[in-house]
Amino acid sequence: MDFQFGKKEEEFRSEIREFVKEHIPQNEYGHMFEEEHEDKSWEFSMSIAKKLAQKRWLTLTWPKEFGGMGASFMERLVFSEEVGYWGIPGVGMGVSGTAWVGPSLMLFGTKEQQEKYIPLIAAGDPDGVWCTGYSEPDSGSDLASLQTSCVRDGDEYIINGQKVWTSAAHRSRWCWMAVRTDSNVKKKHHGLSLVIVDMKSEGLTVRPLKNYVGLHYFNEIFLSDVRIPVENLVGQENNGWNHLMQALSFERGVALGFTASCRRMLDELINHTKETGLIKKTLVRQRLAELEADLEGARTLAYEAVWKMENGLSRIYEPSRDKANVDLLFEKMSRFGSDILGAFSQLDPLHADPRWAKIGGIYENLFHACPGIAIAAGTTDTQRNIVGQFGLQLPRSY
After folding, report:
1. Which of 65, 94, 208, 388 suits 164 as a labelling partner, its CA being 20 to 30 A distant?
2. Beta carbons of 302 and 259 less than 8 angstroms apart
């Protein structure tokens, strides 16, 4: 593996940093999911998304015919790192138009779907914002057990059921939803389909699920006889599991941005320990060094996955491996950062006074967010099972 960046990539990195200086306020840390909670933050995020779209950075690696730049994977690596480090908002177009909805539609969407939905995402348009409806009250990591029914009635499907933990549902125009189109199957992985649901549909209700400190980025969705046209079926009916696995591989490939966020948090924590004199303590230096080693390990493995893509090599378990690494890294950083900040780390993130919120409040935000991050896109143990089965060729875990 050769991780050296060429002149083109370094010039691109410099261009992104100039963009940050011009458009992102100083001392902006980009708290995770903050843009979904506050109206003001959401408006700012969408304004940045529009600026990114104008540069075609929002859909950097998408083919030019779909509104992208056709950039290399190494350029995407640079972009993801800079976005993560500087907390550039608006890059997802909800959860997540740019990361898996658009790419999935390019792979198995119809031409009509591609023409209708992809340009809205690439343009940073409010009608290009998506949420993802996978989890249900009784179907989380065991996604194949989902029960939301989708029954064909002439030229329409009728959907009944409930989705939960649906990030950005209160901001989204469309939902990328997994449903059951056939309940008479021998294996639960069969009979699933992917559909597109208009969030303005009659019979669809979105209710907020605020977390234990009052932050609102999760929701539950109730569907009562919601009708969608059959044209909203994505891919083949009852072949949704295969489509879902492809989409989930996109979703789990988030390690680069997250490791870059960790890099920023660790840099800020090191500066804080120097300013307060805590760096003089042996145990503090040792813990910082351990985090540095963990971070560089996670970053190197994420680089390897990109290098494989750049060289046309297959990725099977790597996204899951990298996601599991990030889950553990976030937990370690939140715990140690909270130890270092002491009582300051326990400030209410909704009402924290800037005079007392040390390091921009990033560690108390991470402390509250990391349990959900470790569950999103499949739990940490689910990712480990994938690595064990496909990476280490171990017997399947039951």
Report:
1. 388
2. yes
Report the percent of the chain where pLDDT is more than 90: 55
Element (H, E) at 104: helix 102-108
Confidence of residue 134 (pLDDT cuts 50, 70, 90): very high
Local structure of residue 136 (DSSP, 8 states): B
CA nearest to 194, candidates 155, 153, 143, 154: 143
**pTM > 0.85: yes or no:** yes
Cα 283 from Cα 104, distance rounded (Å):
47
Residue 397's pLDDT is what? 66
What is the DSSP code string of 208-255?
Answer: EE--TT----EEEEEEEEEEEEGGGEESSTTBHHHHHHHHHHHHH--H
The single-letter DSSP state of residue 87 is: T
Q: What Rg value do the Cα atoms of the chain yield, rounded?
A: 21
Q: Indicate the helix (H) or strand (E) that contains 85.
A: helix 73-86
Backbone phi, then psi, for 43, in 5-degree steps?
Answer: -60, -40
In the DSSP assignment, the letter for residue 391 is: I
Q: Are 201 and 175 in contact (CB under 8 A)?
A: no
Using CA atoms, how far apart are residues 195 and 230, in angstroms rounded to an integer? 9
Helix (H, G, I), strand (E, B) or coil at 361: helix
Q: Is the peptide bond before 96 cis (omega within 30 degrees of 0)?
A: yes
State the pLDDT at residue 252: 47
Measured between its terminal Cα atoms, the distance across the chain in Å is: 35
The β-bridge relationship of strands 130-133 and 149-153 is: unpaired
Distances (CA, A) of 351 to 214, 254, 265, 357: 10, 30, 21, 10
303-337 tens-digit pLDDT: 888 888 777 777 778 888 888 888 889 999 999 99
The three-state secondary structure class of 29 is coil
Contact 78, 16 (CB under 8 A): yes
Query: Would you tell me how many other CB atoms lie within 10 Å of the CB of residue 242?
Result: 14
Q: Which residues pair with 226 in a beta bridge?
A: 159
